[in-house]
Specification:
84 residues, 1 helix, elongated, DUF4177 domain-containing protein
Length: 84
Amino acid sequence: MVAWEYALLVRRYQGQGRSFEVTFTWYGPDGSRRDVTPYGDTAIAHLNRVGREGWELVSAAEDVNNVQGSTEVHRYHLKRPMPI
C-alpha cells in the first residue's frame, strides 16, 4: 500500500483599487510554513515547481470576500508518496 504525505499551497490576493498584493505560502507535510512568493508570481509557476518535486494536485478551492476592497484565497491541496 502507498503511504502519502500532504501539503498545501495558499495564494492570497489582497487589493483595493489599483493597489494589490499577491503572496504564496507553502504548508509542508512536517507542519512548517514558508513564504514562497519569491519563487514565482503565478499559481501555475508554483504548481509546476512542486510538480517537479513529485507533488500532485489533489484539489483546489477559492474563497472571495469583496466587502472591503477585494480578498481572494486560493488553496491548492497536494500529495506525493512518502519517502521510504
